[in-house]
Specification:
Strands 1, 2, 3, 4, 5, 17, 18 and 19 form an eight-stranded mixed β-sheet that branches. This protein is α/β, with parallel strands linked by helices and 424 residues long. It folds into two domains: 100 residues, Urease, subunit C, domain 1; 308 residues, TIM Barrel (Alpha-Beta Barrel), CATH 3.20.20.140. Helix 2 runs parallel beside helix 3, helix 4 packs across helix 7 and helix 7 runs parallel beside helix 8. The radius of gyration is 20 Å and the shape is globular. The chain is built from 13 helices and 19 strands. Bound molecules: N-carbamoyl-L-aspartate and zinc ion (ZN). Its EC number is 3.5.2.3. It is an enzyme of class 3 (hydrolase). Catalyzes the reversible cyclization of carbamoyl aspartate to dihydroorotate.
Length: 424
């Protein structure tokens, strides 16, 4: 199969190329990027007025398989990814059973190969069953293909055990993806602690819940030299800690999710579980700090924390429903609307945070449109205005606070290894 993408506006941070070019793809590989290519191709895509970008890479998704297939499967999650412009996704291990050994990693990779159109790079748990008592077999998971380790959904509260996992992750050459949440400080909170939680009479989650663990984890990264990536940063102090870590030369990176830079707790309309996620929507001051951190390169990555749940689960009250919202199919539009069209990020910087930087963190040969690279490509219209409609999602999860929201920027075509996996 050969594809010729004509007249697109190419954005490639890996080479610094920004401008109108054609791209010729053959046998899954980018053969040529040039001003006017006239190769014969089986498929010609007219990309006039479109952004042509290295495929997006999401470091943080929940695919729910095995165990919670009613929420999402590898197949439906992969379709949602393709529809959102993501060509590579990293599923978290909080499934049932937990992804905590080499056979589970192999099972996931095999199933993904059969059922998913996008690349799936699994993340292994830090402790067995995510119970926090005994380390998972880190070395064998890394050998089987785990690209990172994470206890996502919670933190490893036992710091000595965590220290040992960091040493092993470093030896295995993979990063730790940290979900920062002090379990003992949460005390039943369901939303950000502040004026709004008091107004809604709902138990709050303080910034300290995240901040104490973010600080601890950075101290431990310094101690062990492990590559540390902080997931879904939501507070201004998390940002301060990452800034300090970077200034100190530590291999520490951070991610922010679209919902955290788009909404604050003041936007929560009432007891609506589509606004319940962990960490919670924070204050306006925190939101501002996140945007500035993205702009100032303190935050390296935009990741979705795509967390599908069933309608029945999310119909429940804030107090009773599970934490999490879906994100794969809204990330690009929200980033365009909230960060690019407001001047926080240039289009190139956006692509860096959605593709090039995630690839660097994983140490994989992606996030580039250079000749010779595997053709993972996202084509999007940066100008199209539309209203998000959860009923059009490919994901099983419809749990999003962005239903009916007007946005700008729409993914049109997603290509994985030279194969069109999504076309609007
Ligand atoms: N983010 C969430 O609110 N929920 C995630 C877990 C997580 O990423 O912390 C989930 O698995 O549902
Ligand atoms: Zn998490």
């Amino acid at each position: 199969m050969s594809i010729l993408i004509k007249n697109g506006y190419v954005l490639d941070p890996s080479t610094g190329l920004e401008g109108k070019r054609d791209i010729f793809i053959k046998e899954g590989v980018i053969k040529e990027v040039a001003a006017d290519i006239n190769e014969e191709a089986e498929r010609v895509i007219d990309a006039e007025g479109m952004y042509v970008m290295p495929g997006f890479i999401d470091l943080h998704v929940h695919l729910r398989e095995p165990g919670y297939e009613y929420k999402e499967t590898i197949a439906t999650g992969a379709m949602a990814a393709a529809r959102g412009g993501f060509t590579t996704i990293c599923p978290m291990p909080n499934t049932n059973p937990t992804i905590d050994n080499d056979q589970m990693i192999e099972y996931l990779l095999l199933k993904a190969k059969k059922e998913a159109g996008v690349n799936i790079l699994p993340i292994g748990a830090i402790t067995k069953g995510q119970q926090g008592h005994e380390l998972a077999d880190i070395e064998s998971m890394a050998k089987a293909g785990a690209v990172a380790l994470s206890e996502d959904g919670k933190s490893v509260m036992n710091t000595a055990l965590y220290l040992e996992s960091m040493k092993q992750a470093k030896a295995a050459g993979i990063p730790i993806f940290a979900h920062c949440e002090d379990k003992d400080l949460v005390q039943g909170g369901v939303m950000n602690e502040g004026a709004k939680s008091r107004e809604l009479k709902l138990p709050g989650i303080s910034n300290a819940v995240e901040d104490v663990i973010a600080a601890r984890d950075i101290i431990m990264a310094k101690e062990t030299g492990v590559q540390l990536h902080l997931c879904h940063c939501s507070t201004k102090d998390s940002i301060t800690f990452i800034k300090l870590a970077k200034e100190g030369g530590l291999p520490v990176t951070g991610e922010v999710c679209p919902h955290h830079f788009t909404l604050s707790d003041e936007d929560i309309p009432g007891d609506d579980s589509n606004y319940k996620m962990n960490p919670p929507l924070r204050s306006k001051e925190d939101v501002q700090a996140l945007k500035e951190a993205l702009r100032d390169n303190i935050i390296d990555v935009i990741a979705t924390d795509h967390a599908p749940h069933s309608e029945a689960e999310k119909e429940k009250s804030m107090a009773e429903s599970p934490f999490g919202i879906v994100g794969l199919e809204t990330a690009f539009s929200l980033t365009m609307r909230e960060l690019v069209n407001t001047g926080y990020l240039t289009p190139m910087e956006m692509v860096e945070k959605l593709s090039t930087n995630p690839a660097k963190i994983l140490g994989i040969d992606k996030g580039s449109l250079a000749a010779g690279k595997i053709a993972d490509i996202t084509i999007a219209d940066p100008k199209e205005e539309y209203a998000i409609n959860v009923n059009e999602f490919a994901s099983k999860g419809k749990n999003s606070p962005f239903h009916d929201r007007k946005v700008v920027g729409k993914v049109k075509t997603t290509i994985v290894a030279g194969k069109i996996v999504y076309k609007e």
